[in-house]
From TrEMBL:
Keywords of this entry: Signal
Hydrolase as UniProt keyword: no
InterPro entries named in the record: Haemolymph_juvenile_hormone-bd, To_sf
Protein name: Uncharacterized protein
Pfam families: JHBP
Stretches of the chain forming a coiled coil according to its record: none
Stretch forming the signal peptide: 1-17
Length: 236
């Protein structure tokens, strides 16, 4: 959400400055800020070791009660690899000061996950419950289109009049093996990920986009309202 907040803050500074001959320069400047923020996000994901996320072999204690072992959750992970989280592609960006409009089209072309084997254990008192996971999954073309219209006032500041979000996922392909409490759930989980989830994303697309628009708009405006010092730096 910082991407949009910084874009709007910069927009206000440019409009208050006034001269028409700097309009195009300011528009390109805002475009550059947005591109820079997206690149920062991609770099941050990689620097945190999340792309690629690779675990050759490790054991994780997910939860343990303080002092006692009456309740414990842990997992043993072997040969896990997740790739593609940082490959954020800017398909289109268009910012207009005069029309007070920002259009942005970004996507994650491909996210893949492969697990050699993952074994989870839940210990409750003297009982233990086990689960196993292996296999692969891929998500193709996660895409978000943003069309934002804003209003600007010297006193009122920047506010978002309308924010349209168009979220889509081209394809999900799951081929996982899941056993929980000695019950093989692989077919059920794969059917849900390959068929049910994509169908529901399409069926409830308008509702999902509306919800995302409301949530993102609220987060952006909170960022803007808390960015007074950054705004003053641009204006003065």
């Amino acid at each position: 959400m910082k991407i949009f907040a910084f874009a709007f803050v910069t927009l206000l500074a440019g409009v208050v400055a006034g001269p028409k001959d700097v309009t195009r320069t300011n528009e390109r400047f805002v475009d550059g800020i947005i591109v820079g923020r997206i690149e920062d996000l991609s770099n941050n994901i990689r620097e945190r070791g999340l792309d690629p996320l690779q675990v050759e072999e490790n054991t994780y204690e997910l939860y343990r009660l303080p002092v006692t072992d009456l309740f414990l959750v842990d997992a043993a992970v072997v040969d896990v690899l997740v790739e593609g989280l940082s490959n954020i592609v800017i398909n289109r960006i268009n910012f207009s000061i005069l029309r007070q409009r920002l259009q942005l089209d970004i996507s994650l072309p491909l996210i893949t996950a492969n697990a050699g084997s993952t074994n989870a254990r839940v210990k409750l008192f003297d009982s233990e419950f086990h689960g196993q996971l292996s296999g692969s999954a891929r998500v193709e073309e996660i895409r978000i289109l943003v069309d934002a219209r804003i209003s600007i006032g010297i006193i009122s500041g920047v506010s978002i009049n309308n924010l349209d979000i168009n979220f889509s996922v081209k394809k999900i392909k799951s081929d996982v093996n899941i056993v929980l409490l000695d019950h093989d759930l692989s077919e059920t989980i794969n059917k849900f990920l390959n068929e049910t989830l994509p169908n529901n994303l399409e069926k409830y697309r308008d509702d999902i986009n509306m919800l995302l628009g409301v949530v993102i708009k609220d987060v952006i405006e909170r960022r803007i309202n808390n960015n007074d010092s950054e705004l003053e730096r641009f204006m003065y």
